[in-house]
Amino acid sequence: MNQYKLSRTIPPDIKLKIRQNSKFGCVVPNCRNAFYTYEHLIPEFKDAITHDPDNICLTCSNHNPRRTGKNKQENYTKAQLMDFYIKLQENEIVPEIRNNDFFNGFNVEPQIKIGKSIFNRIASIINIDGLNVFSFQKSDIEDIFAPQYTFSGTFYNSLGKLLFRIEKNEWSSPTNHWDVQTTNGEIKIWDRSKQLVFGARKFPFTNTIEITELDMWFKPFHLKIDSESLLVGRYADDMETWIYFSIEGTFNSGNCGIFLTSSELFKTPVWAGWQIVGGKGATITGNGIWLGRGATQMLIFRIDYLKSDNIPEVIILSKPKKVNPPLNAHYFVKGVLITEIVNYPLWNEKVYYLNGQKLENEPNSWGQIDSETNEHLYYIASNEPSDLSLNSGFIGFYADDVLNEHWSDKVFEAEVIDIDLQGNEIVRRVKRSEISGRIVVSELNPFTNKYWHPHAFGDSPWRNGKLLNY
Questions:
Q1: H or E stretch covering 217
Q2: What is the value of pTM for the model shown?
Q3: Which residues of 188-211 are buried (b: 16+ CB within 10 A; e: fewer)?
Q4: Starting from the edge strand earliest in sequence, which strands make up the sheet with 357-359, in order?
Q5: Per-residue pLDDT tens digits for 103-162
Q6: Rounded to the nearest 5°, which phi and psi values hold at 32?
Q7: Considering only CA atoms, which of 284, 276, 360, 355 is closest in space to residue 315?
Q8: Measured between alpha carbons, how far is 218 from 140 in angstroms, rounded to an integer?
Q9: Which of 115, 256, 419, 424 is 20 to 30 A from 348 (CA-CA)?
Q10: Helix or strand or coil: residue 216?
C-alpha cells in the first residue's frame, strides 16, 4: 500500500478500462509489446489516491519507467508515456500490438491441441481452399540461435475482420477488440460483442500449443470449440442451412489437421454420412470438411454431427454403382494411369485417372502389358468409390477373366531357379513371359492350384478360390 492506504491491486474493471485505453499493448508506438504491466503515470503510485484509468497505462518491462539506470537515465519519462497514452486514445488508427515470444522456442515439431483433438507432426494445422490459415515450418536458417520452427497464420471474426496474424512467429493484432489479455504463456481475445473468440496456452516442457477457445469464421466455414470439443461447420448462402462435424481424436504425421474446401458444393445439402478414409482423414461426405487430411495414423475417440432442421435425415452413404462387385471380389482394369499433382503451400497430393476415370486411391498394378503405351493391368479394391465396371478397360472381377487375354503371361507368374549377385542359386518369381529358358520350380500356387500372381487383398482373386495363406 502507499501512503494513502491504496493497494497495489487494481480492480478487474479498472484493468479492463486501462487495457482498452492502451489499445492492449505497451503505449510506446514503436514497441506495442502485448506483454505488459500496469503503470501509474501522473501522479505516481506513491502519491495516488485512487486507481484512475486515465492516469494508468500499459508498458512492457523494457519501457517501465520504474526501471531507470543508476544515474536516472531512462528510455522515456512518465510525461512522455502520458503523451503516448493520450494519443492512443484520441486516434482510431494506431500501431498493432505484438508478441514475439508465444510462438518461439520450439526446437522439435510442436504438438498442437485444439479442444480435445491432438495434431502431431502436421505442419498445416488449418487450410482453407488451399491457403494455410495456421501452419508452421522448420526454419531453413542455419543459426543455432534462430527459431527452429516458424509459425504463420491469419484469423478472422464473423464479420470478416482481422482478429490477429502470425508472421514468422511474430503475433500481432489490430486493436478494435473488446479486450486482449496476454500473460505468461497465454493469449485471450474478446471481440466487440464481448465474446471470447480465441484462447491459447503454451507449454514448452511438453512442446505443446493448446488452443482452448476458438470461435472463428472463414465463410462459409465456422470453427468453434464448445465444451472442449472441436466443431467445424459449413453454412449455405442463406446462413440458415448448416452442418457441423464434431470429433475428438489424435492425428499423426499428416498433411493438414483441418482441411476445408468450398469446391465441394453445398447448394442442396443432405446428411450424407461421415467417412474415415485411410490415408486421407475423416470427412463429412460432400461438404468439404476434412480432419486429419493425409494422416498416416488416426485414433478416433468420438465422432458426431449437428445439422439444421432443414437438412433431411436421409442418409446417402454413396452413389449407387451400376454393377456391384461380388462378395470378396475386386476390379481388374487394363489401361493407362495418369497421375496429377495438386500443389498446396506445404504439401502435395496426387490425383489418379485411369483411362480418364478419376480414382480415389492409387491402383495396384499387376504388371505392364504394353511397353509402348505404358498400359498396365490394375487390381483395384471393391471399396473404390468410382464404378470401375463402367471403365473402358474393365476386364472383370476375377483373375479367371484375365486368363482369356492374350497378354495374360505378362501378369501371371511362375517360380524359377535364378542366380543371385553372389552366384548362388535362388528361387524367385518372374512373369511367365520372362521365364526365358529358366528351370521352372512351380507354375501353380499349391494353396489355390492356380497360377502365381502379384499382390492381392487378402481374398483369393480367383473365382471360388480359397483364402490366401502365403
A1: strand 208-218
A2: 0.72
A3: bbbbeeeebbbbbbbeeeeebbbb
A4: 337-343, 348-354, 357-359
A5: 888 888 889 999 999 999 888 999 998 888 899 888 877 776 677 888 888 888 777 788
A6: 60, 30
A7: 284
A8: 30
A9: 115
A10: strand
